[in-house]
Write a sequence for this structure.
């Protein structure tokens, strides 16, 4: 496995990921609708909604990391967001199948659980939120991620393709932390104070690329602590007092969205915290 195609290579995570892949000695091809002056790899301008373009662009790749998507239910009409994210995801997997590419990593989202963008806010069935928690989105973006995960499962059933869908929490850069409302817990209530440092998001992608014989699986990619200076127990008592099914003791600032399955399956563990940058 030498040549990796990265969709959305000009984006925030895509750029950081490609730089690290190059450092590790991979040959990388960036597939995006725009070129980036930051990237030192081959770049192909491609419309992922055009299947012929996707097949051509993926030719010669040994694996794919699919990060391209409209990243929130914002900025475009809802039907367009849904169609773009779902069709591009299908095209990537169908093209990979035709070309004999056996490994794909897909950017999914914790938004698939439905809490982040809910018009009618609701509480989780239990805490911590793990991969088995029901996904109940009320909008197009979270729904598009669920459809992509189901599509991945279909390709695994069809030909045994390994597709690891990474449910990223809010991706942050070290320079972001000083501007985030760490001491205003209400600011991140709807995402359960969940975040992932971009360096740890990159390492999760690469760990997924190296994983073997995992079929189609979905993993939460989140930090092990919360994006708050308050103890986690206090956050739960203050903002989610109706949740009675607590399946962890939540010492200190333990994360409310669990990354334990990602740690177990990938041998991965987040190494960075906002507290390291601010304190």
């Amino acid at each position: 496995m030498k040549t990796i195609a990265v969709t959305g290579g000009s984006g925030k995570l895509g750029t950081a990921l490609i730089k690290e892949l190059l450092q590790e000695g991979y040959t990388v091809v960036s597939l995006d609708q725009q070129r980036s002056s930051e990237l030192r790899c081959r770049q192909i301008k491609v419309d992922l909604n055009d299947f012929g373009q996707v097949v051509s662009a993926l030719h010669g790749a040994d694996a794919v990391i699919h990060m391209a998507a409209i990243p929130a239910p914002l900025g475009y009409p809802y039907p367009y967001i849904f169609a773009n994210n779902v069709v591009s995801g299908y095209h990537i997997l169908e093209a990979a199948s035709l070309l004999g590419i056996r490994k794909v990593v897909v950017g999914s989202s914790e938004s698939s659980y439905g809490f982040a963008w809910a018009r009618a806010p609701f509480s989780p069935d239990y805490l911590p939120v793990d991969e088995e928690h029901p996904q109940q989105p009320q909008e197009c973006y979270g729904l598009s991620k669920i459809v992509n995960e189901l599509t991945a499962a279909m390709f695994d059933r069809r030909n045994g393709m390994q597709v690891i869908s990474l449910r990223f929490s809010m991706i942050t850069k070290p320079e972001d932390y000083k501007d985030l409302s760490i001491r205003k817990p209400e600011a991140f209530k709807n995402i359960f104070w969940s975040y992932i440092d971009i360096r740890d998001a990159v390492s999760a992608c690469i760990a997924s690329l190296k994983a073997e014989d995992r079929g189609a699986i979905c993993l939460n990619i989140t930090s092990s602590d919360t994006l708050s200076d308050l103890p986690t127990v206090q956050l739960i008592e203050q903002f989610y007092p109706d949740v009675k099914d607590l399946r962890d003791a939540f010492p200190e600032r333990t994360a409310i969205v669990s990354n334990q399955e990602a740690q177990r399956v990938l041998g991965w563990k987040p190494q960075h915290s906002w507290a390291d940058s601010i304190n």
Notes: Strands lie at 3-7, 27-32, 42-45, 63-66, 103-109, 162-168, 170-172, 195-197, 216-221. The longest helix spans residues 78-99. The mean pLDDT is 97.
